[in-house]
Amino acid sequence: MVKPFTPQLVYVEPDALEYPSGKRLIKKFADMGVEIRETTSHNQIRNLPGENHFQKYRIAKSTLVIGVRRTLKFDTSKPSAEYAIPLATGCMGHCHYCYLQTTMGSKPYIRTYVNIDEIFEAAQNYMDERAPESTRFEASCTSDIVGVDHLTHHLKQAIEFFGKSKHGKLRFVTKFAHVDHLLDADHQGKTRFRFSINDDYIIKYFEPGTSRLHERIEAAVKVAEAGYPLGFIVAPIYLHDGWEEGYLEMFEKLEASLPAFARKDLTFEMIQHRFTKPAKRVIQENYPMTKLELDESKRKTKWGRYGIYKYVYQDEQQEAIKDTLGSYIKRFFPEAKIEYFT
Ligand code: SF4
Fold first, then answer.
1. Please, what CATH class does the domain formed by 69-341 belong to?
2. Euclidean distance between CA atoms 70 and 3, whole angstroms
3. Where are the domains of the chain?
4. Which of 78, 262, 276, 312 suits a disulfide with 224, CB 3.0-4.6 Å?
5. Whose CA is nearest to atom 2 of ligand 1?
6. 93 lines ligand 1 (CB under 6 A)
């Protein structure tokens, strides 16, 4: 079982200490005996311990930076929400195919933003612009926010902020089971709590440092019992020998655990595995022993929104994924909604 994350090293930006959350976090880490260093800005963080790239990368992933979010302009977040709400960046997990490896580039450390009220104010402005239509915010575009929230509680604050809002909805996804502190948040049904799931083989070989499938399912049951609307993202759907059985077992386990009341308002999102050439280079550098299949010649190309080709599965394979997983969902969760396959 993966333990809740504790940073090995904490950096703090001086102006973060002007915010209550910054003060609270520094006290917390000092009490825990974690080494705390000051930095004028996270961009100035150099000399992370470690003798080579491999070591530095791993230490960075267990380093937490307590900082202030300067840009309060939110990115859009299609297809699952209108905007990405920035609460943190980076992740302590070591999924070989993680999109953060390319988007975070040379800064794989985790950052948490303490100017949380300013971030909520910006969110309020976005909601006001679209009112009376509702506005959905995605909190996990640049991090696995749940993985760090047992320390910061910023996500919990966001859940309660949107709970009180008139037109706001929050959603996020996680591969971590450390959800206990979120169970008593006053969510008012406005947060959709999603778990990213995969079959046991894929989690075992490609998702080190994250909670195992049965732990994520146990956490999902707790979340459903706490009244949150629930969802699952099956991602990345990855074709390996025996994938049909692997995913069947995954759905069987889910079906055996989820209480009936959690199935009425349940969503599934399906995302096939994809990679880009730059991502392949980074994956092979960070996880040189990976078994991940990254052979461009076996895939088809798809033009990506960042102006770069993605390698996705061939059409027949995509059809097989849609048919097989779609039929499992219909069989085990006939009331659930499949939001998209991409
Ligand atoms: Fe990346 Fe999510 Fe894995 Fe974290 S849990 S390393 S964000 S894929």
1. alpha beta
2. 31
3. 69-341
4. 262
5. 144
6. yes
